[in-house]
Write a structure and sequence with these properties.
Blueprint lengths: L1 H26 L9 E10 L7 E9 L4 E6 L2 E6 H6 L13 E4 L5 E5 L5 E5 L10
């Protein structure tokens, strides 16, 4: 009798797991991102100028309501839309751990300063939704 109950419980658990898998796969079809996540689609680097590398990346994000694509810890991420609209870039924590973030004077972007003094500058041309007008 105990064995029969255990088998029924195991069969029920297996059916539940299968149904969860089927439902999950219906919501996340191939190529879809989970809500609140981003992925890098393209990454181009131009090192043609001495002592300067220009990197451009394109990301695809599936942000939740009230969020917009931004940068957190030097990776694409969904951030509070207010940060982008008000150009308070450093609030989205765009720099790597240990780097310092500073807004550019005209709020057109930010710099990340590494402990050794190397500076990486990012401008809002990468964030076309932030333009006024």
């Amino acid at each position: 009798m105990q064995l029969l109950k255990a088998l029924w419980a195991l069969a029920g658990a297996a059916i539940c797991c299968f149904l969860i898998f089927v439902i999950h796969s219906q919501f996340l079809k191939e190529g879809q991102l989970a809500a609140g996540t981003c992925e890098i689609v393209t990454l181009d680097r131009d090192s043609s100028q001495p002592r300067r590398t220009i990197a451009r990346q394109t990301a695809r994000c599936a942000c939740k309501k009230g969020q917009i694509a931004g940068t957190t810890r030097a990776r694409p991420a969904c951030v509070d839309a207010r940060i982008i609209k008000t150009k308070q870039w450093c609030e989205m924590l765009p720099c790597l751990e240990g780097e310092g973030c500073d807004l550019l004077i005209n709020k057109s972007g930010w710099t990340c300063t590494q402990p050794g003094g190397r500076i990486k500058t990012t401008t809002d041309e990468l964030f076309p939704d932030s333009k006024d007008g």
